[in-house]
Design a protein that fits this description.
By secondary structure, the chain is mainly alpha-helical. It contains four helices and no strands. It is about 65% helix and about 0% strand. Helix 2 packs antiparallel against helix 3, helix 2 runs parallel beside helix 4 and helix 3 runs antiparallel to helix 4.
């Protein structure tokens, strides 16, 4: 009877083998909307210096995109970056693009240069 009362041991549990530990990869730096908008504003400010027609073809769309990126940055909680970009777009890049266009036209009129 003792043989029947003797409890059998359960089969050994399968042990998961540990995965090899790899070195943590550095995370890719995500460009924030404020950084992308800053690049747009910078290009928009200096594009009319190359040719005045670029004010309408390049600068105005890029200024609009920079303004939208500033709003997106504000909505995502990046308040400082969004406000700085808004100030840069409205107060610096926009006027600079228009002044560069007018200044180029004035310079061409004064010195008798032909338009591009």
């Amino acid at each position: 009877m003792e043989a029947t009362r003797r409890m059998e041991t359960p089969p050994p549990a399968i042990v998961n083998q540990a995965q090899p530990v790899s070195a943590p990869r550095p995370e890719k730096r995500k460009n924030s909307p404020a950084a992308i908008g800053g690049v747009c504003a910078l290009i928009a400010a200096f594009a009319p210096l190359a040719a005045p027609v670029l004010l309408f073809l390049l600068s105005l769309p890029l200024l609009a995109a920079a303004f939208i990126f500033a709003i997106i940055a504000l909505v995502r909680g990046r308040v400082a970056g969004g406000i700085i970009l808004l100030i840069a777009v409205v107060g610096l890049a926009g006027p600079m693009a228009f002044v560069a266009t007018v200044g180029d036209q004035t310079r061409r009129a004064i010195f008798g240069l032909s338009p591009i």
